[in-house]
Amino acid sequence: MLTQVNYEVKGQLAKLLATEDLIIENRKVSTASFDTDRRVLTLPMWEKASGIVYDLLVGHEVGHALYTPADNWTYEYPDVPHSYVNVLEDVRIEKLMKQRYPGLSKTFYGGYSQLAEQDFFELSEHDLEEMGLADRINIHYKIGAFENVTFDEEEKYFVDKAFKTETFKDVLELSQELYNYIKKKQEEEEQLTKLDDLEFSMGEKTSGSGMGLPFQPSDEKTDSEMEGDVDGGEESDSETSKDGSPDPTEMTDKEILDELERPSDPMGGVHGGVSEAVTDKTFQDNLENLNKQETNSFYVPEYVELPTLNLDTIVAKNSDVHAYLDEYWVRSQKNYDQNSERKLDIFEKVDNDYRLFRRSAQKEVNYLVKEFECRKSADAYARATVAKTGVLDCTKLHTYKFNEDLFKKITVLPDGKNHGLIFVLDWSGSMSTVLMDTIKQLFNLIWFCKKVQIPFQVFAFTNEWNHYKEWDDDYTWRGRADIPNHHEEKDHMIRVESQFSMVEFLTSDCKKSDLEKQMLNIWRLTTPLTQHFRWDNTIFYQCPRKLSLSGTPLNEALVSLNQLIPQFKKATGVQKVQCVTLTDGEAHPLSYSYKFEFKDNPERNYMGHRSTMNGSVFIRDKANGKTYYCNSHSHELTSALLNQLRGRFPDVNFIGIRVMDGRDANSFIRRYMDWDFDKVQHIQASWKKDKSIKLTDVGYHAYFGLSSHALGNDTEFTVKEDATKSQIKSAFKKSLNGKKMNKKVLSQFMEFIA
Asked: Would you state the pLDDT for residue 437?
């Protein structure tokens, strides 16, 4: 049985054969179909087919997608049986596919060889020599290498002409010609059969004396005949044979001619009195049997698409966010002044902590800048080329007798691409224990971007910004907001809930002084949200409700990046983007819209939703025609969305920074290493040594795991005045380890940015 991954591989094969980004869908359907408008090729799930048979069928169906038009030809050729057209069209499209891809000849040979061994056409139940011409043509071109099919001289004309068809019009004309020929032959055979039957019946009647004398009519009637006349002549009026046909001995010449011209009763599949191609139907029926294996509907593939989001409702603009925060700080100070007897700047301590951190962070920022410049120079040197000039190098003239290279050379450095960074920050409740440490890392990167003049944008994903209304002038909370939908709801489309939003915290598109104020705002915002400060009696304000911590809509954020990345590139003019996600856990699952239909009662139809994590969902990106398997685990859905982004934006590096404690690290490592014991052991050893790990090809180009405890430790070497030697040693070692981890991670991070 083919696995889900196998279906994707076969889908890619179909795309390659079609030389275009067809949309491939593997479904539990009886036959393949192709939507010419949407360019969607639907393939049955042939679970019972071997690999080479599956490739044969894929090649065959792609041939139909490429060469068979969707025109309704039945109006122009109403008499032609569909099976005749199918047989002849199969010959044409398989010939064209082999001409286009010579390697397919081997695939078709091997596939049909297996089908012949399996008696796929059920030839064991039929006499091949007695089959109709259309059937024998079908067998000849499909498994003729394994079955001896004979044709007379008249029939060879159709066999040869079938191979010479180039267009679908040729196929239709030949189908009409084949139909006329077979119909004529069939009528001739019927006439001969009826004549034989008549001669046989009449012969029996004339040989009543047993002498073999010819029948001689007599005018005399027997006693029994006379009795029949007296009784009403029942037998003389309607004398028939046992099969219901008139007795030939009592028929006139005209009646005999009429009987000869009357078509015989149809037996089997017929079209206008002409038999259909039995082997074509057999082939289609057995194809259906290949996908009739009983499988759990849970694993039947469902293809979902990404919605086009309304960014105006998704993104909380930078100016609006900080206007809201500024207003809230003023309100908070006013509330404190009204309810407290002592005068106090409630932000004094928090603001002072920010200034101290900014001063201490300059060493790390300078290290980042140095690392970036070194790696950028090394990369430029690696791509440098040396070119000769037409100017003589006088220092080499004395070597003219044995050296032909006497000209000066110049080193050409290629132009580097300008870079930009997008930061996606987890604003969920579980981040409270590491939020301040994460913000510190983020600020270091922001200051680095400012020093090297790299455009940047910082978003926080949350479910709270759109959830609530503003305060009234009298500081009364208005309640929950009426949230607009972010996109149109359609069947089999990913759903992005209306409460989701991307809050634009910081952007390089503002003045230096404004950026400084905004970073201070984020520091103020983070302080009361951090678990460490939650019960600190030196904090005299709370977090504004619209920016409080929420769930983890990371997957929704990744969906929105499909539109945010192009918008960022257009606004900044950057050529290469680094997209950095800072998080501490797994994302919420997503659902997709699903139209529930009731054939017996269409009025009950409604638009509901299903989870993407049922083990059978593929995300289909219409931009590149690729599909991405979601699987049934939360982290695998995130990986699928990241792979989709990487497929759509090959010039973007997606980097993940995961902050976690020791217990979370073990499960994190096992999860992404697919429980591979050797890999798990190796990564765990790295974690124990450095308190950091780096994973690749897990959706992200690089996924860094950082210890929350290590991040929280101050890398500065500070001890008490009365510290003992062991305390000094321990503090010094702790400081070195913290610096070592930070430098290692930041150095690896610079590899992507440089």
From this structure: 84
What is the bridge-based pairing of β-strands 606-611 and 274-275? unpaired
The DSSP string of 242-282 is TTSSBPGGG--HHHHHHHHHSPPPP-SSEETTEE--HHHHH
Sheet holding 33-35, edge to edge: 23-27, 40-44, 33-35
pLDDT in tens, 556-598: 999 999 999 999 999 999 888 999 999 887 888 899 999 888 8
Q: Given the DSSP bridges, would you call strands 606-611 and 591-596 parallel, antiparallel or unpaired?
A: antiparallel
Neighbours of 708 (CB within 10 A): 20
Residue 329 per-residue DSSP state: H
Strand, helix or coil at 745? helix
Report the distance separating Cα 23 and Cα 40, nearest Å.
5
Token pair, residue 457, equals 């944008």
499 Cβ partners below 8 Å, 6+ apart?
463, 464, 466, 467, 483
Residue 550 is classified by DSSP as B
The encoded tokens of residue 709 equal: 């405890």
The residue extents of the domains of the chain are: 4-183+275-295, 311-316+328-346+418-660
Give residue 659's pLDDT band: very low, low, confident or very high (50, 70, 90).
confident
**Contact yes or no for 305/492 (Cβ under 8 A):** yes
CA distances, 288 to each of 10, 48, 185 (Å): 18, 10, 33
Which residue type, as a one-letter code, is found at position 130?
E
CA 382-387-388 angle, 5° bins? 150
Contacts of 199 (CB under 8 A, 6+ apart): none
